[in-house]
């Protein structure tokens, strides 16, 4: 019986890796859009700072949506700005997810949000 309980605890251990923090505990500051180059050499920069306002070290996933003038989502990408490194409380990390997007001439607006939180 003790072996069964121990096995169950080990099986559930990865679930416990989710942080006690939530997406609301993170903020995105200074989000900017910039494009450089022309034609097939056009590159997007979608950059900002991800700030941890949680009381624990954790990482957050950022989602950026590129929209047309009517608000229709053309592309949606997400990434972990700090990778598998936790961000200490009160600290921030810079990010630029522009390389994940392929430019479309209909892109008019970009929204950015925190979509997930995890403690590594």
Fold and architecture overview:
This protein has 120 residues and is mainly β. 9% of the residues lie in helices and 43% in strands. It is built from 1 helix and 6 strands. Strand 3 (59-67) and strand 4 (73-79) form a beta hairpin. It is elongated and about 45 Å long. The mean pLDDT is 88.
Briefly say what this structure is.
The chain has 120 residues and is mainly β. The protein is elongated and about 45 Å long. The strands form two sheets. Strands 1-2-5 form a three-stranded antiparallel β-sheet, with no helix packed on it. Strands 4-3-6 form a three-stranded antiparallel β-sheet, with no helix packed on it.
């Amino acid at each position: 019986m003790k072996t069964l309980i121990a096995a169950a605890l080990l099986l559930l251990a990865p679930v416990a890796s989710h942080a006690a923090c939530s997406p609301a505990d993170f903020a995105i500051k200074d989000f900017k859009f910039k494009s450089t180059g022309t034609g097939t050499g056009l590159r997007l920069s979608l950059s900002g700072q991800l700030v941890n306002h949680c009381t624990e070290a954790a990482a957050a996933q950022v989602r950026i949506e590129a929209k047309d003038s009517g608000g229709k989502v053309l592309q949606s990408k997400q990434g972990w700005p700090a990778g598998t490194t936790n961000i200490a409380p009160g600290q921030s990390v810079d990010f630029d997810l522009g390389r994940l997007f392929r430019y479309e001439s209909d892109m008019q607006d970009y929204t950015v949000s925190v979509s997930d939180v995890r403690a590594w």
